[in-house]
Structure formats: C-alpha cells, structure tokens
Amino acid sequence: MAVNTKFHPISIDLNEFKLHIALKDRNELTLHFNSPSRKFYLAVIAFIVNEMKRLGKITSIPLDGHYDLLALLNNTIGEVAGSSDKEHLLPRIYRKWKDILPNLEEAHLFKILGKKKEYDEGTAKTYHFTEAEKDNWANLFEYKGSEENVRLKFAVDRIGARLDDIVIIYEDAINDEAWERFLSSLKEKVEKLPEIEPIQHPLELPQAPTPLLEKKRMAWHLQYPWILVAAIVVIAVAATLAIWKFYPKPSTVKRASLERMVFPLPDKPSVAVLPFVNMSKDPEQDFFSDGLTEEIITTLSKSPNLFVIARSSTSKYKNKPVEISRVSEDLGVRYVLEGSVRRSGEKVRITAQLIDAVKGHHLWTEHFDREIKEVLTVQDEIALKIMKALHVKLEAGQLGSETGRGTKNLEIFLKSMEAREQVLRYTKEGNARAHRLFEEVIALDPNYARGYSGLAINYAGEVWLGTSKNPKESLSRAVEFAEKAVSLDESDATAQAVLAYLFAMTRQYDKAVSQVLRALALDPNSYSVINNCGLALAYSGKYEESLPLLEKAARLNPSIAQSFVMSSMAYRVVGHYDEAYGEAKKAVERNPKSQLAQIALTVTSILTGREEEAHVAAAQVIKINPDFSLEKYGKTLPFKDSHQVDLVIDSLRKAGLM
After folding, report:
1. Of 386, 406, 426, which one is at a domain's C-terminal end?
2. How many domains does the chain have?
3. Does residue 415 form part of some domain?
4. Is 597 in contact with 564 (CB distance < 8 Å)?
5. For residue 308, what are the CA distances in angstroms to 4, 294, 400, 437, 507?
6. Does residue 207 lie in a domain region?
7. pLDDT tens digit string along 464-500?
8. Domain limits at 376?
9. pLDDT tens digits, one per residue of 402-452
C-alpha cells in the first residue's frame, strides 16, 4: 500500500529516491536522486533526519560513530561510487554537504522534476530559481567541524518547518520503521546468496538379476575370498587411474571471502570467464583459445539475467597461476569459468569447468570433442550448460552465436581474432598489423560484418594514436566502414554501438543518440556496447543518461585504466568532481603509464582543489608524451558543449601543461 504524503510538508521517499518539499506559500520542489552515487546522498539525508527524530530534536549528528552504517549505504545503493575507507568516505560526505548539496541552481547531485536546465549568461546550464528559493534550500545543510570529525544537521527549522513535518518513506512504512526496513533490505542484499547445488554425477545403473547358472560359476569366490579382494583392489586402482587420466580433476577450491570482495556481488549470478589455456604446442592456437573465451563471454552477456565480466579484465590472468578465490574477490563475482583447448590435427578437445568460488566447489565440468570444422559452434553449448548450472532462464533468441551467424570459416575467425588482439594493444605497430589483417578478412569474405566494424575501430585508432595524416579523413572512413557493418548485420549490437560512438566523434550528435537506442535495444548488458553508447551520449550532451552506462561499464571491466578514465569523465560532466577524482585515481592505480589516466587525474585534482597532486600528474603526462600539446589535445575532445572542453583545457593549463 502506498503512503499518502499529501499532509507532510517534507517527504523523503526511499522507494523512488525523491525528496519532496511543499511548504505553505512556497513553490513545491521535487528532487530526484537518480543514480547510484546520488541515491547514496539522499540516504545520508534520511539517516540524519532519522537520527534527529530518534533524539526528538533538530540537532547536529556526528558521522564518526555511524561509519559502519554509512559504509553499508555506500557499498550497496551507492555501488561504491567512491571509496568506503573511513578516511575518504566521511570527508567526501562533509564536502558534498558543505559545497555540493546546497547548490540548487547547478544541482550536481539531483535532478529537479518539472524544470529544465537552461544556459545562463555564461556557458553552463543551470536551473533558474529566485534568490530566496536558492537560499531556503542552501539553509537546510548545516554542519559543524570538518572532514572526519564533522557533525551534520538537516536544518528544517531554518525554512519554517518542524521535525514532525518530515516523513521518511520505504515500502508502506514511515519514519523509524521505514528506515529499519530500508537498512534490512540493504543487509539482505549483501548477505543473501542464492543456494545453487553442484550438478551430481549420474547414478549407477541398477544391476540385472543374476542367472542361476552364473551363481554356480561364482561359487568359487566363497572358497577363495582373498583372490576376490585382491582382484577388486587391482581393478579399482586401474579404474581410478583411467578416470584420473581421461577426466578433468576437480581440485580443492579455496573459498572466496565476501569481506575481501573489491566490489559487492551483483544481485544476479555473476561470472568471470578466464582465458582458455592453449594446451597445443602451436602458439598460433592462442588466437583460437582467446577467440573461444571472447565468444563465450559475448554469448553469456546477451542474457539479462547474468552479470558477465569483460574479457579485458580477465585477460590479465592469462598464462599465470591463479587462485579462483582471488579472481572472485578481485572482480566481485561468485562464479568463475576456466578451461583449456588442445588441438591435434583436425581434432580439438575443449575442457571447461564452472566453479562456485564463494562455496568453494565445482558446479559443472565437461569435455567437448569436435572436428576442427565444427568447433565454431561449441561456445553456444558451453554457454547453455553454464546457464543450466546456474538455473538461469534462457530467453528466446538469446543463443545462436554471433560467430555462427557471421562466419563458419576458421581462417577468417582466427585472422579476425588476431586483428582484434592487435587493436587492443593500443600501439602504432599493433594498429598497423590489425589494418592488414582486417583487409585480409574482408578479401576472404566481403559479407563478414565484423571485418568492417573492426576496420572502423582501426581507422579511429589512427586518430587516438596520432598516426593519422588526416584525422578528419580517418574518422570519415571509420564511419563508412561502421555503416557497412551495420548494413550487413543489423542485429550486431557491437557494430551498432561502434557506429553510435563514431557519429559522436564526427559531431553528428542526433544520429549518435538515435544509434545508441538501437544498440542498447539489441544488447544492454555487454561491456563494449555499454561503453561505446555511454561515450556517445556524453559527447552528445546527454550527461545524465551517460552516467549510469559508464558506471556500469567500469564495473563490468574493472581491471583496466580505460574504464575508470571514462567513468571519471562521466562524473565530471555532471559536476560530481569528488567522484570523478576517485575514478581517476583508480585509473592511475591500474596503469600509471596511461596518458589518459594521468590527464584525468590532473583535471579532477584541479577541480577538487588538489593543486599539488595535479602538478605531479601533469609532470607524468609530459614524461609519457614529451610532445603533448593542449591545442592538439583539445581538438580530440568531441563534446557538443564547448564548456566541457574549456573546463578540461583550463584545468590542464592551471596544472602547468601547455
């Protein structure tokens, strides 16, 4: 049953994360805290209000004694948008309460329903309010002390309201009961894990009745029982050795610790697919092993009922001894798939096993023996087995792999995989090698869509790497090849998303936004689609829409710097500078030699008042790229809103870059 808020001047709705103010003789105001990081701050307001109600007076509430509760909020509804460490979390809340939440005009932490942002006299978009309205809102956010020792007050008395005028709503409850239910739901989200039992080995078939004549023949066993015992032992040992030789050995798996998870587990089955090990002597088969890994990830990602880590984040484990529990903890997933590929002539054996890292046991193990000509269909079989093991419902049209739809030719598949590996190295040499391979792929099959979408990314790579003699022409060619890929296979979400990104790069913003809708309708779950669509929306000025996509992209691909460079940008363009700084720090931690990561850290350090750190990061930019130029870099930023370009360039200039 819905709670009627009509008679409450101020309501905090934790079902929809809205704050509604309807005071007498004043305009009504409804604020929507519409992203994970924003929801966190509404929950903080609700916490302060609930504590004041518990004490029976409008007073300041110390944060220090409630750190565990605040960390719970940050790790659940906040989806760890910023660090949960005490020395970072409490100062971040303090700065937001002091500087960001009171800003009704720019509204960095909420969306104001019923109003639209418009350009002011400068270049920024703001909500238009009277000075009195802005002051009334800002007066709500009182504080004493600073950083970790801060005390906060939601000062409703300063706008003419009483403590009883505020109501907290969750489900059909209000105030303290609502708050307790809300916290209980968050704790359940952390603690509750679905019970999934391992698939049992088939039972032995029942024995047929033994004929009378056979019983007589067996009578000697009763006279010489020691012979029977010895025979049984020999047979048992031989059988055990045979089984051990021909079947995979389920090793003891150390359990992953929920407390050590870098990220909280998603609310649906989460899977990381480790690189399949090439057991063949031929190193050329690495491309097939990597391709199989990627195809399984791509197929699993089509399910809206699964959370699947991107291959870029699992590839760091390639050719390394790994603990399954460590993989689970590092990536924040419950299930890990590992496997191997052995090719001998025209035969291929693929072994795969799925492990529940939290419980520490194997759910499923199987061999797949195939002729080489049949091998491009096996990823669908593996994906289907995984879904069955996890009791995940298979949606109509979910399987039928992209590889099967795209090519049955193993040579094309292997060349395509090698080319994509070269592109992902982000080097001039790798990009040049990829260009030749993609052209060979298209020559072998002019109707293979992935060849054209790969070539589109390749041309865009020339611009990113600075190897293009004519960047405008390179981007034009990239768009041309991406459009060709989409025309050949409209159901390829990756090609659709690449085209959306390239439309934004070439400043065709309306086309970019339309293309994003097509791509996400086909596949709203895979990293490459979400990341490209998020970037296209951000460049096209759709900042609010881009933020949740780029937040999710960083969670799906948490091992690479690039993910956090982009999520930092997403937070920056909506004015969440502290979160943008935190994401930039994560990017640099993952790759200190990344120019883009150091640029992101430089910009966000300036925007958050960390000038000394900004100068250190700027020095790293020059160390990585001695030819760095603000003028050239500015031209690579395709934002529709020139204010965003100016903000970045001005910040870099303040840090000493030229």
Report:
1. 406
2. 3
3. no
4. yes
5. 40, 11, 18, 29, 32
6. no
7. 777 888 989 999 999 999 999 999 999 999 999 999 9
8. 270-406
9. 433 457 788 888 898 889 888 877 778 888 999 999 999 999 999 999 999
